[in-house]
Write a structure and sequence with these properties.
CATH topology of the largest domain: Aminopeptidase
Strand order of the largest sheet: 1-2-6-3-7-17
Distance between the termini: 34 Å
Strand content: 25-35%
CATH class of the largest domain: Alpha Beta
Length: about 375
């Protein structure tokens, strides 16, 4: 069985777990399966849990900053049971989580095991590894209890978040997120006499119109802040003028925006009450020789994305990194979610070369007191 065959087999095993947040026991069961897999392969792993969310860290030594970390997640968005039975058609592996993000968890684990096997052939062990693996359980709902918690304990000089991009596109920037709730108030009245009331839904719509000028910038790449009016709630009866209406808004902002200043602008523009539900930082990796070398090694282009991933937690913790991954054909979260098997192979081979370069530098330092070559 080839390394790629093992990765696909393990990915299929992980897909069969229905790791939706509506089924938290499945997420925990999948985490325990991974812990058992690590034990069976003589890999020392640690299980962290924060507010019921499990994360698995497979590191050289717990608490010691490593050179490289491969980060992925096992939680998925909701799907029918049928999507949790993996299937392969030609070059594509189908199933919920196939591309987001269970192939990445499987690939990271198999790669770690393979590099550890090579070190052991030289009389070394896990503490001599230059890479670690972090697999979390809540990326799809913001990652605060997964990556947000685990990365404060297990850190690396460079992190590859295997959760976006493609073999030819490496993400160096992702937008931040602000979720807001605006509550508009009016005056209740009978639907037959609307002039005697003040419709809170009308007031909410007026606030929405007042917000639009704050988000009217346009450019070719759409690298600007955006606003989506995603949820509206108002009224209890069709023949009653509603006195309260609520709207929830999703803002995506760039590295050119100050989120607190943006929230103040929203408050100044509307008449309703503004509640901040969530603020996630922008991911903008600082310059790094690791990034430069990985770009050169892979031949990928630098890109920026409008979505977000657990890479959002890196910058505040002083870690550089990229978001990168296999080819998923825009299928994420859809009924035909899939990943290209050959692109997983390309990714695996490139990361192996990257790790080998890191190992060479460490070996040179061990033998000569300084790294071999200028890099790392």
């Amino acid at each position: 069985m080839t390394l790629l065959d093992e990765i696909i087999e393990l990915t299929c095993d992980l897909i069969r777990f229905k790791t939706m947040h509506s089924r938290p026991k499945e997420i925990s069961a999948c985490a325990r399966f991974i812990m058992d897999w690590c034990a069976e392969n003589d890999m020392r792993a640690g299980l962290m849990e924060q507010n019921g969310v499990p994360s698995i860290a497979v590191m050289p030594e717990s608490g010691r900053r490593t050179k490289l970390m491969l980060m992925s997640h096992i939680d998925v968005v909701d799907a029918d049971d049928a999507l949790f039975e993996p299937r392969i058609e030609d070059d594509k592996l189908f199933g919920r989580g196939a591309g987001d993000d269970k192939y990445a968890a499987a690939m990271s684990l198999v790669l770690f095991r393979e590099r550890l096997r090579m070190l052991r052939e030289k009389g070394l062990g896990q503490k001599d590894m230059v890479m670690g693996v972090l697999i979390t359980g809540d990326e799809e709902v913001g990652g605060r209890n997964g990556a947000g918690h685990a990365l404060a304990r297990e850190q690396a000089d460079f992190v590859i978040a295997l959760d976006g991009g493609s073999p030819g596109r490496m993400v160096l920037k992702e937008k931040g997120i602000i979720n807001l709730k605006i509550t508009a108030r009016g005056k209740a009245a009978h639907g037959a006499r609307p002039w005697m009331g003040e419709n809170a839904i009308d007031a909410l719509i007026s606030d929405y119109e007042a917000l639009k000028p704050l988000f009217n910038e346009e450019n070719e790449e759409h690298w600007h802040r955006t606003l989506n009016f995603g949820i509206v709630r108002g009224g209890e009866s069709v023949n009653q003028v509603p006195n309260v209406a609520e709207g929830q808004f999703n803002i995506r902002y760039t590295d050119h925006d100050d989120p607190e200043q943006l929230i103040d602008m929203v408050r100044d523009a509307v008449k309703g009450e503004v509640d901040v539900l969530r603020i996630d930082p922008v991911f903008a990796s600082p310059p790094s020789e690791y990034t430069d070398f990985l770009l050169k090694l892979s031949g990928a282009e630098r890109v920026q994305e409008h979505g977000a991933s657990d890479a959002r937690y890196l910058q505040d913790l002083g870690m550089s990194g990229v978001v990168w991954g296999a080819e998923v054909f825009g299928s994420i979260h859809g009924v035909n979610e899939c990943v290209s098997i050959s692109s997983i192979n390309m990714l695996t081979e490139t990361i192996q070369k990257f790790v080998a370069k890191l190992e060479k530098g460490i070996e040179g330092m061990r033998n000569n007191g300084k790294p071999t070559g200028a890099l790392f």
